[in-house]
Specification:
Radius of gyration: 15 Å
Shape: globular
CATH topology: Mannose-Binding Protein A, Chain A
CATH superfamily: Mannose-Binding Protein A, subunit A
Order of helices and strands: HEEHEHEEEE
Helix content: 10-25%
Bound molecules: calcium ion
Number of strands: 7
Number of domains: 1
Largest sheet: 7 strands, mixed
Number of helices: 3
CATH architecture: Roll
């Protein structure tokens, strides 16, 4: 019930689905264009969904999060965060954003050992278990995307694939987004 209420609030607020919005002043500790997830799930901070053009490879997306946006690719730290993200992705899909999104999970350092950008280990709860077994732990698949169709569960994928991406930073952290892109 609580999450349904959150979804309704997000849908009507326009914060999660407005595209090419005008710059807004910082609110709730998040820069303009960033969504204040912290107000819904403590510790989740500020989130930016960016899907510019045909998308970016995982490596380019990681660089864009750091260099253009002053954050890093998303970490899904808990079941609660995954549930919240699933609602967000469903809203985006309802507004035409069907593509999967890069997260920060990768196993570049050690095949089969999945970690987030802060080097913490990816929890089992984060993986998509609905249609197949993920991660597939294949040397070809070294980065993980998420999507509404997997209820925000992770799927390991070709890192060269071009996708939208989700950046994250702590709320209250300063720093501007320098690339306008397409924010949702
Ligand atoms: Ca792999």
């Amino acid at each position: 019930m609580m999450w349904r209420l959150v979804a309704v609030l997000l849908a009507f607020s326009g914060l999660a689905c407005a595209q090419n919005v005008d710059p807004k002043p910082e609110s709730g500790g998040c820069p303009a264009h960033w969504f204040n997830a912290e107000s819904f799930v403590k510790g989740m901070g500020c989130i930016l969904f960016d899907h510019t053009g045909s998308g970016l490879s995982w490596i380019d997306a990681a660089a864009a999060c750091q260099n253009a946006h002053g954050g890093r690719l998303l970490k899904i730290a808990s079941v609660q965060e995954r549930e919240f993200l699933a609602i967000e992705l469903a809203i985006l899909e309802a507004n035409g954003e069907y593509n999967p999104w890069w997260t920060g999970a990768s196993d570049f350092a050690h095949e089969g050992v999945w970690t987030w950008p802060d080097l913490s280990v990816v929890g089992d709860f984060a993986w998509d278990s609905s249609s197949s077994t993920f991660p597939r732990n294949d040397t070809r698949y070294n980065a993980a995307s998420t999507a509404a169709s997997s209820s925000a569960g992770l799927r390991d994928d070709l890192y060269t694939g071009r996708k939208g991406y989700i950046c994250q930073k702590e709320s209250g952290q300063t720093g501007q987004s320098n690339s306008p892109g397409k924010r949702v």
